[in-house]
Design a protein that fits this description.
Six copies of one chain form a homohexamer.
Chain A: E1 8-9, H1 15-35, E2 40-42, H2 50-56, E3 61-63, H3 64-72, E4 79-82, H4 89-98, E5 105-109, H5 125-140, E6 144-147, H6 156-163, E7 167-169, H7 170-183, E8 202-203
Parallel strand pairs in A: 2-3, 4-5, 4-6, 6-7
Helix pairs in contact in A: 1-2, 3-7
Chain lengths: 211, 211, 211, 211, 211, 211
């Protein structure tokens, strides 16, 4: 079941949007845990609120950026991430480093596109992305593309067919990782850094987020 | 001028608390920017909301963990961070990595203490911290201590005197870094990843955070 | 369908065994590809012949060590690998490095056990492994165990229940990764380092391995 | 109080110049310590003699390369260092690595300029540097410039205005770091690798450097 | 005494060829050890079977890729490896990483050449290699070339004279490393990961490889 | 031909001694180059003045620490360096990092010994070193010892026999590396960072070091 938090930015571009949207993420995960869902997918390529969600979720939590990178690492010698606006480059580079993917990710490539351009019928977005992927293969020596935005999922087949390399979409990768974890009976360890939040007072507007 | 956000957890322990408190951080920084402050210090050793605050602040923003580690790197061959509860270890280890301090930080050490224990008159907290620092010097070969919690500032002199090594408090370090940056006329670059947030719709409870 | 090559060592311990068994791996994968299987799992924790198998397979190939480590990275702050004989430590440490898992794998732990001890009814193997896992949690601050041998699969539940942390078995993890890749229609990229082997003469005993 | 050692090369370009000038550095620091100065700035971007100076100084010692890089790390997503002659590249790359700045320094850029060209009235040096900085922003995706030579301090405002990004001069950064350290009462730890030199015989021309 | 195994591929290009040729390597090393040779050189730039050979050899074993890279590290600030077909790039990049040469190897460069092209009288191979080396110096800022194929040994003088930088051939480097090790009385440590293979049953075609 | 500079400290312990002794190193190398020697060995385990010597030498220059570590990397899975006084640890750790040996050097171990203790007849030095080596094998899982001081050369056989692992002495290793480089006709590249020093004025006491 996919939900979009009913609070937060219309799209996530940069650290500020990320902080705000993280709140929506943990909110939905808490609701889901109360209802007994089995696992959670954070479906924005910045993986906002991922670690926090792990503390309050009753099952495994997967981010689409981490899922896409890990999945891609099994099928190529090196991939490039192709994403939207330039301001996202640093966030993705930090994720590459955080997930130990420096040896697999040959380059993070960003474009002039805004996230919401991807949803505009008949826009040039599709071709802008394709050309950036083409450069990734020619210049980065990458043999796989990771699409760096949840909104690019419907480009997978098109780009893969045009360029002849595997193309990884984070949402699909995340669903598969979740299915795998749940199927193995695995969930986030409670023994240390992802224990349930300590009980304490939460003040003001945030009172309702008290664990 | 020091402010404590009027919303958020009473102390910050773990990723969930961090996400919630980051909202208070960006809120205060936006208020401060409207009033024309010159710089901002995020005074929790997890550096919550640091990158987001840089996007909306009108001047430099410094986190006390990053300030303490950078400052310490000038005066020692290697330091240990001594912090409170064990669940914070992973967050601090991630910061060490994010700040490029793997070559200087010999170990992150945590204790059984909760953050709020530090404020209890006559508690054992003071000695627990001192003994952990002593082990850091003996076992990690560290020649400097970085105190991993804003609430430990008043232990600097005591520990330094007892152990004969420099002890770095993040709050003091952060103030000095800010003074330095402001004195040099430097502030966060707007040219790329820390540009002001893109204008867009923010929904629901988060509407008032719209950039 | 699980096959065990009909040539090679009875168990795989060290680099020499690995080289010999890699031949059996590529042999079986070539047979499987001729029969049209959809994917391949290399079910020894040294991942012998993994990269070579990718060149000749008609579908994705997964190693159980890489699968276990990647899967574990989604559910813990840090894991220890607990394996058999000490001579395997260096091979596993090389894999940790090759898979970019230095930030997640806190320690490779080996025991006095030989691989075949695991199959002996009523042996002490079970307890030796459990005690090493217990030390991993206490001394390495790991909050997850990766079992470093295909022969330990039936210990997952026992150890997990005794120690209260998730325990990851590579065979199960590998099956899930394969299912995920196949489900997404992904297979090894042919664009570069994993292209089908160049056609050329193979001499002597190896003539039948000619691509 | 700024001093220039009365012995050593007229400018510092390469490892040989560095070794010779390091002697002047420790000589001045020893004189200063005898006179009771509070801190020391090594004002050449190769940081010659920095570690040795720490052993004999009575207060903190800061190098301008380390100060500039650390200071820059607080205000940008990534910086390029723009320096003089090509032979200096490797020394600066080693410093980037030694200071843990691989994640922040996107490129070390050198030019055909000699250090002393910077002091020639009406030379092209100013423009050569500016154009290299422009390339740093366009090609390296850097959003901040670190000037890699003490002689470039007067270009800070010009370049910053022309390119619209923060520009960091090491001398100014070093002064601020020193003020910060001294203000916090911090100095080099004596507990381990920066202890005062062991007493022993010094022979020949070097006799007067005996600790 | 140089031997070429009488089984295996005519040239080694890619992981599959590597696995097959590794068998020939360990076979020859076992024969040599029975005859009492003093040391062994694996003379293919992929270093196939190197670690396995160390387990069964009665003296030190050196690979030409590792020898060339280590030797080059003593005489330059940074080298580029210039090799044959593009499919070898990933194998060489893995070796760079495995040997800790990321700080010295500025780039792995491959060409359209097949290994066997190098042996064709009057081919363009010589010039293709030279031009790639020229680009390495101009674009990578390398000041040394490591030739990435055993078949390039006779190009050393030509390229070195044309480009004015040292050029390192792995076979010559390997011989020198072996002479050095043997001269010092050093051989592979038996204490841990390179102990003689464990005794056990080997099945089928591989029975004759039983340790 | 071995020379000991007629100026500088009686032994080298720490950064200050290193700076002073580097001057003696470059002085002797310049004299040697005028006389036409073929290569140079810097025979102190801190490798003082190594890079500078490369700029002024007429042949290859090798440091005993770099030679020992590289040589050891061919014969073991991991080594420990066992050295004299604790203040040398940080210098050796920096060298390990600078030479890309983090993956091979499992630990730098220092002892209470002063360098000159090694020369005292009948001292306990021999046993102190042996016991530290024993701990290296037991606790670090090292299967090789690198002796971290030129003055330990005569302990090689004793320790190797007692502990059953290869023991590497830097002086012997350095001689072999030099012989190898000279035999291959290789010397330091002049193309970039190790070019001969730029001509310029040298002042004061240092005038005679003018290139």
């Amino acid at each position: 079941m996919a939900v979009s938090p009913n609070m937060g930015p219309a799209s996530i571009e940069g650290h500020y949007d990320e902080v705000i949207s993280a709140l929506g993420v943990v909110d939905e995960v808490r609701k889901g845990s109360a209802q007994g869902f089995h696992g959670y997918l954070v479906a924005c390529f910045d993986d906002p609120g991922l670690h926090a969600a792990r503390e309050v979720a009753n099952g495994p939590v997967v981010g689409i950026a981490e899922a896409a990178m890990h999945m891609a690492s099994f099928i190529c010698e090196g991939f490039s991430i192709v994403a939207t606006g330039h301001r996202n480059r640093i966030i993705l580079e930090h994720l590459v480093r955080a997930y130990g993917m420096e040896h697999k990710c040959r380059k993070v490539r960003t474009t002039e596109l805004a996230v919401l351009d991807l949803e505009v019928e008949g826009s040039e977005a599709r071709n802008v992305i394709l050309e950036e992927c083409r450069r990734a293969i020619a210049e980065d020596h990458s043999d796989c593309i990771v699409l760096g935005c949840a909104g690019m999922a419907d480009l997978v087949d098109y780009i893969s067919r045009e360029l002849g390399v595997p193309v990884v979409d984070g949402v699909a990768a995340g669903v598969k990782m979740l299915e795998g974890l749940i199927g193995m009976g695995l969930s986030t360890s409670r023994a240390c850094g992802y224990a349930y939040p300590n009980l304490k007072r939460y003040d003001g507007e945030m009172a309702r987020f008290q664990p």
